[in-house]
Design a protein that fits this description.
Helix content is 65%, strand content 11%. It has helices spanning 2-5, 9-46, 50-63, 68-78, 80-95, 99-112, 117-130, 134-147, 151-164, 169-199, 203-216, 221-245, 253-267, 274-286; strands spanning 294-299, 305-308, 312-315, 319-324, 327-334, 341-347, 353-357. The strands form two sheets. It has a four-stranded antiparallel sheet with strand order 3-2-5-6, with no helix packed on it.
């Protein structure tokens, strides 16, 4: 840029052109390096070299973090330790002419890595060697479908094989593996549904979803933990809503203490969710109202002795004003020669005053 500052446009343009060429060269080398690492990773996978494959694909991701081929390669390398024993078992089975076992091993390997070339070609060869009879064809088709993840087609093929040979061990094993795959898929669906219900704060329904998974398999850790979590949140939501539905209960100090403890528990929940935040906000707005005193105007007949247990005795009067906090109270009126009067009253929060009349008017 010094040349540009000096007014030499020709030199400035030349330097800009050189910089552009350098950038193109760097980008080209990055593309070449990415292709080289992808190729090295594929060769390492084919050779069963997990460590080399992992290194190659990790480096490819560093060159281009968005490259899908590198991400797929990382996943395939991660599963290679599970694939290699199956390939070895298949090759051993082929050596002993146990084509049924060979077919099963290759199909299982393809379940872990559908792109494994050795398993693909091996399965095709094993199916040919397994035989051309109807039972063998159906079993081979079943394991091929199982390896491709087509569980419904696999079950249909194995069931068809059983019509040819009801006691066929290969068909029975295929059905067992197909059922296991369906069960695993079912648990995934339940887990996703339960997670969605939790996100919507539908805690009771989430508990039911986890219970359905535990009914099938009580050892499922995700369902055990999910049930405990959802049940706790469901109980918290019920307790908060019970206070909001009957706010008059907050007149009792013990209930206000309970409400305060619930609020502390609610604020500690992560994530909180809009429903829980709404409940806590509404309850927080209610609680202070029960600490604001209300003026109570008592109207009597100047002859009745009026008392409020736990508050005091006020004697007889025509009208008297006292101040009470919101809550439930009992007013007692007594007068010689007259039947006593008891009145249960509720001082509601949020009002400035309330008028109550109490007099003994029924002679004995």
């Amino acid at each position: 840029m010094g040349a540009l500052d000096a007014g030499n446009m020709q030199i400035a343009q030349q330097r800009l052109d050189e910089a552009a060429l350098l950038l193109d060269h760097v980008e080209g080398r990055a593309s070449q390096a990415l292709a080289a690492q992808l190729e090295a990773g594929e060769k390492a996978l084919a050779a069963g070299r997990q460590e080399l494959a992992t290194q190659a694909f990790d480096l490819a991701r560093r060159i281009d973090p968005s490259d899908q081929r590198a991400a797929d390669g990382q996943r395939r390398a991660l599963r290679l330790n599970g694939v290699l024993p199956l390939l070895a078992d298949a090759q051993n089975a082929a050596s002993s002419h146990d084509y049924s076992r060979e077919t099963q091993a290759y199909s299982h390997a393809l379940e872990l890595d559908p792109r494994n070339a050795t398993a693909k070609s091996g399965l095709a060869s094993a199916r040919v060697a397994f035989g051309d009879d109807n039972y063998a064809k159906a079993v081979g088709a079943g394991f091929a479908a199982l390896g491709a993840g087509r569980i419904g087609d696999a079950r249909a093929a194995f069931e068809k094989a059983r019509t040819y040979r009801p006691n066929g061990a290969e068909a029975a094993e295929g059905l067992r593996r197909a059922d296991a795959a369906l069960t695993a898929r079912g648990f995934v669906a339940i887990r996703e549904r339960a997670a969605a219900l939790e996100a919507q704060e539908r805690w009771e329904e989430a508990v039911q979803a986890y219970n359905s998974a535990l009914k099938s398999d009580p050892s499922l850790v995700f369902a055990q933990q999910g049930k405990i979590r959802a049940a706790g949140r469901a109980e918290l939501a019920r307790s908060l809503q019970a206070l909001l539905d009957r706010p008059e209960r907050l007149a009792a100090q013990s209930v206000r203490d309970q409400a305060q403890a619930l609020l502390e528990t609610a604020k500690a929940q992560l994530p909180s969710g809009p429903v829980l935040r709404s409940q806590t906000t509404r309850l927080e707005l209610l609680l202070p109202e029960f600490d604001k005193p209300v003026r109570l105007s008592l109207v009597s007949d100047n002859a009745t002795q009026v008392a409020i247990p736990s508050i005091g005795s006020f004697g007889s009067f025509a009208q008297r004003d006292i101040v009470l906090k919101p809550g439930k109270y009992t007013l007692i009126g007594t007068r010689n020669g007259y039947r006593d009067v008891r009145r249960e009253i509720t001082i509601a929060p949020g009002q400035e005053s309330q008028t109550i009349s109490i007099s003994c008017s029924e002679p004995i």
